[in-house]
Specification:
Layout lengths: L15 E5 L4 H13 L4 E5 L16 E3 L15 E4 L11 H22 L2 E7 L21 H14 L7 E6 L1 E3 L12 H10 L5 E3 L5 E2 L1 E3 H10 L7 E5 L5 E2 H12 L6 E3 L16 H6 L8 H11 L3
């Protein structure tokens, strides 16, 4: 993200940034990283704590607003860059209609705010819309919608597509993000969070039969880096944010065992979500490399190691 002397925009004043969903998982990591890199920027963090956690913003020194961005007239102001991470993110949330309304209307309101202030808009899309489509998944392939969450994110991408030639707007299809700041999510937290907690407690890791499902796990520090780079994207668009590497569940257990210095064998269980479960996620990262200049720095094992050793997982 380009600034003058890391303290302002090209207009000669402090950079004005807005982060929605700032107390959530990716949002809190992003907010604190923006503060660290650009301490003179004016950062406004917004969250209504529907799924975020106040402790995630410990150390944040900017302005905080407790607001639901899906409500009319929720936000106003002039910003240079808006990072929109707010959403109902649990794919098994019990009210599909509410999820669709909240995620889509929230995005509509944020678009209006970005347009009124001339801000660049970076928003969270999702790899969930690929469903069980062919892997590695490419941005333009046919979508396979398995949840209302995926449906809401696809609707957002379609709204953004109509604006690609009118404003700087970038959607990021995050793959399977893990790392510090996700503990408050409970059940929707990453497999890595849940399996590591089990294994540190001495329990055998429970994975779906026979551990052959694959995931493109990306460490949250890489996801944040991609999000910041998107502010200087070469062109508006929707881009995959993943590592480009898929690791099966058995391999994931092996990596956690290796980092913890233990050797627990997996316990295989039936998958209760057959038919609505993604069996293989893997990002084609070529577009993100070309237009964002992004390539993940952390391998799965390196991300797990940093998470366990430096963030008290």
């Amino acid at each position: 993200m380009t600034t003058d002397n890391q303290s302002g925009c090209n207009c000669g004043r402090p950079l004005k940034l807005l982060v929605t969903g700032a107390a959530g998982f990716i949002g809190s990591n992003l907010t604190l990283e923006l503060q660290s890199r650009w301490p003179d920027a004016e950062i406004t963090a917004v969250d209504n704590f529907f799924s975020g956690a106040e402790e995630n913003l410990r150390g944040f020194k900017g302005k905080f607003e407790n607001r639901d961005v899906s409500k009319e007239q929720a936000l106003s102001g002039d910003y240079d860059i808006i990072f929109h991470e707010a959403a109902i993110t649990d794919p098994r949330y019990g009210d599909d209609r509410q999820m669709l309304r909240s995620n889509i209307e929230g995005f509509r309101n944020i678009i209006a705010l970005a347009q009124s202030s001339g801000a660049k808009l970076i928003y969270a899309s999702s790899a969930s819309m690929y469903g069980n489509g062919a892997a590695p998944q490419k941005e333009d392939q046919e979508k396979h919608i398995l949840s209302a969450y995926a449906e809401s994110k696809l609707a957002m991408d379609e709204m953004a597509r109509d604006l690609f030639n009118k404003m700087h707007i970038v959607g990021l299809r995050y793959f399977n993000v893990f790392g510090p700041g996700e503990a408050h999510k409970g059940r929707p937290a990453s497999m890595i969070y849940h399996l590591t907690r089990q294994m540190k407690g001495g329990a055998r890791p429970r994975i779906f039969k026979m551990g052959e499902q694959k995931r493109d796990h990306i460490y949250v520090k890489d996801a944040v880096e991609a999000t910041i780079l998107a502010a200087d994207a070469r062109k508006s668009g929707v881009y995959n944010v993943g590592t480009g590497t898929a690791v099966d569940f058995n391999g994931l257990v092996a990596d956690i065992n290796s980092v913890l210095g233990i050797s627990l064998e997996a316990e295989y269980i039936d998958n209760p979500y057959e038919g609505t479960y993604q069996n293989h996620t893997q990002a084609d990262t070529s577009a993100a490399e070309k237009y964002l200049g992004f390539k993940a720095r952390y391998s799965l094992k390196d991300g797990i190691k940093d998470y366990i050793e430096n963030h008290r997982l």
